[in-house]
Amino acid sequence: MAIAFGCSRAGTALNEKFGPYLAKNGNEVDDFGPFDDTPVLSADTAHALSKPIAAGRNEASRI
Fold it and tell me: InterPro entries, from UniProt (predicted)?
């Protein structure tokens, strides 16, 4: 399954574990970050995630 995900900076530590876990279990993963403690709006993450979903690239997503 192709999965896209992203988070707020509060979820960065969990996000770092989530992607590798999904990939290890046979999923194609698109991680939209953030990749550090830089503040990010949830709306920006949602917008980034919406593009591959709308294009049919990813079957599932999670913010």
Answer: RpiB_LacA_LacB, RpiB_LacA_LacB_sf
